[in-house]
Design brief:
Shape: globular
Number of strands: 20
Bound molecules: adenosine-5'-diphosphate
Distance between the termini: 64 Å
Structural class: alpha/beta
Radius of gyration: 27 Å
Mean pLDDT: 97
Helix content: 40-55%
Largest sheet: 7 strands, mixed
Strand content: 15-25%
Length: about 525
């Protein structure tokens, strides 16, 4: 029996309670799965063109109602309106714009090469939906995380069920968009609750799970999914390094590092979580970073979050994450790090100023564990080799950035980093291109979203080999005679040796065909 313990949703800017949600009941879980399974064959039978038209209804609605949506996002997350506009609204529309163009081609049947030994046959690959996709999302980009996978799942013919985070569920927002835009009913559904609801949803056996969240929860989800062999994509945390070489433009690089660390108040799995600076420019860069931080308009309790330009940097979303940030800073300071800016929240609030830490090393949590807050720990390096070693000395492998005028060096370093995504002379920018797949390695998870690879993660990639009807018995079919064994051996030698002999291979092939056309099991 599931207990309906409520989760209290609050506005992190002023800590005012907004509403409550509870765990969903087993009947509600059953209902969303029944709806999804009823509508999915309809989606499957729609042309890709028609699916794109449906998705464009969502797109149009979002553009028209963007300010109303942004207000809801800001109210539950505490992010700045600019962050909500650029990384939730823009990113969803950008993904739709890309996939409306490329999906028809990606999902088109593909003819593939058929080898010479299979002469006369044809091979193709077709892409079919998996069924119902369960999407479990985190609290940091609630709107984007709900829409991106559900849009890709729909375009590839699936129904999806979204379980948003119980911290920022945006209750009713997605449903309103779907309903008022006239989007196909039940093709994308939302169900609320916390981990109990999540567990029940997995037990209802979706055909795939797309999860974004913490490493611990990712492991639990994978373990539960393993019982039913449900495939999972796990987009987990990150500890993204930025490597800054001495030949950079300091002003531009400092600006990039600040945004990469403090966007969404640092609550992004791809935000810059540690910076390695080549020692000759270390002092100059630190001075620039401190100065630029002092100019930032930072969130406080007097923020008017309904006003565009309310602040450069929003506040933390949850108390528990803020405590992690504080614990990491305390641990670093106890081990010798120095706080140059920020370091402490405004008492009693979730407003945390941008924090610059120096004298950091890898014995500290701030360098090794995901902080997920507005903290920029800076370390020095001497050589390219050392920078790569330091960047790779991490349990995570999501993204990284490399900053240098020497693009050859930057690309060489990018290729040495144990991560899924690298931006050169920029940060978090691989995510801005929907044609690039996004995902991690190591503790950052596996699976890819976006790019053709991301779209294909929602389909059954089916292989079809087409032969004609005839009277020929294939060489590998019974009976397995001594003559056939000898001919097959010759065929292997003539075809696969380095000195391949296609004339002799053809002669053997003809002999085998002749045997095949007469053969019967006696
Ligand atoms: P965060 O959002 O802080 O990264 P989690 O990884 O715990 O935190 O949560 C991400 C999402 O996973 C949320 O929607 C949460 O409700 C859900 N969740 C948490 N535990 C489980 C679980 N055991 N099974 C399924 N979903 C879960």
């Amino acid at each position: 029996m599931v207990t309906l313990s409520p989760y209290s949703i609050q506005n992190p800017i002023n800590k005012k309670k907004l509403y409550e949600i509870g765990e969903s009941t087993s009947q509600q879980v059953e209902e969303v799965f029944n709806n999804a399974r009823r509508i999915q064959p309809v989606i499957k039978n729609m042309s890709v063109k028609k699916r794109v038209e449906e998705i464009l209804k969502i797109n149009d609605y979002i553009i028209t109602h963007r300010e109303e949506i942004i207000t809801r996002i800001v109210e539950e997350t505490g992010k700045s309106r600019f962050d909500a506009l650029s990384s939730e609204i823009f990113e969803v529309c950008d993904a739709i714009d890309h996939f409306k163009k490329v999906t028809p081609d990606i999902l088109k049947d593909k003819k593939v090469h058929t080898p010479i030994v299979l002469m006369g046959k044809k091979s193709k690959v077709v892409f079919e939906p998996l069924g119902t996709i369960l999407i479990i999302t985190p609290w940091n980009y609630p709107f984007y995380q709900m829409f991106l996978p559900s849009i890709l799942a729909f375009l590839s013919g699936n129904a999806s069920i979204i379980k948003p985070s119980e911290i920022t569920p945006l209750k009713g927002v997605v449903e309103k968009i779907l309903l008022e835009s006239g989007f196909l009913k039940d093709a994308i559904q939302v169900i609320y609750g916390g981990k109990e609801t999540g567990k029940q949803l997995i037990d209802a056996k979706p055909n795939k799970i797309h999860f974004t969240g913490s490493v611990e929860t990712g492991k639990k989800i994978m373990e539960q999914a393993a019982k039913y062999l449900i495939p999972v994509d796990l987009e987990l945390g990150g500890k993204d390094p930025a490597i800054v070489f001495e030949d950079v433009n300091i002003e531009r690089t400092a600006n990039g590092l600040l945004w990469g660390s403090f966007t969404n108040c640092g609550q992004s799995c791809t935000s810059i979580e540690r910076v390695y600076v080549q020692e000759s420019i270390y002092d100059e860069l630190i001075t620039k970073l401190s100065y630029n931080i002092s100019k930032l308009k930072v969130s406080d309790e007097n923020r008017n979050y309904t006003e565009p330009g309310d602040c450069d940097m929003g506040c933390m979303t949850s108390e528990s994450q803020t405590q992690i940030v504080e614990a990491h800073i305390l641990d670093a300071v106890q081990k010798g790090a120095k706080v140059l800016t920020g370091g402490k929240r405004i008492p009693g609030s979730l407003h945390f100023p941008p924090t610059l830490l120096v004298d950091v090393d890898h014995t500290m949590k701030i360098a090794m564990e995901e902080t997920f807050g507005p903290v920029l720990p800076v370390m020095k390096f001497k050589t390219e080799k050392e920078a790569i070693l330091l960047a790779n000395d991490s349990p995570y492998g999501l993204s990284a950035s490399v900053w240098s005028k020497d693009l050859e060096r930057a690309e060489r370093v990018a290729k040495c980093l144990e991560v899924g995504n690298v931006s050169i002379n920029n940060c978090m920018l691989t995510e801005a291109n929907p044609a690039l797949p996004f995902g991690g390695i190591k503790n950052s998870g596996f699976g890819r979203i976006k790019g053709q690879w991301g779209l294909l993660s929602f389909v059954n990639i089916k292989s079809i080999l087409i032969d004609k009807q005839s009277s020929i018995i294939e060489v590998q079919w019974y009976p397995h005679t001594k003559t056939k064994y000898g001919l097959l051996t010759s065929l292997i030698i003539y075809l696969f040796s380095r000195s391949r002999n296609l004339i002799k291979f053809a002669a053997v092939g003809m002999k085998l065909d002749k045997i095949g056309s007469k053969e019967k099991i006696k």
